[in-house]
Amino acid sequence: MKRKLFYGFIGLTFCSYWLATLFSVMPNNFIKLSHYRSHLLFDSFFRQRWSFFAPPPTSNDRLIYEYETNEGTVVVVEVLEDIYKNKTSKAPFNSNEDMMEYIIAGNVHSVSQFLAKHPDMVLAKSETLDTTTVKKIWSSVHNSSSVKTLINYAGIVAQKNNIAFDSVQMMISESKIQKFADRHKPDTINTKELKNYYTSKKFGKDEIIEFGI
Question: Which residues cross the membrane (predicted)?
Answer without folding.
Answer: 6-26
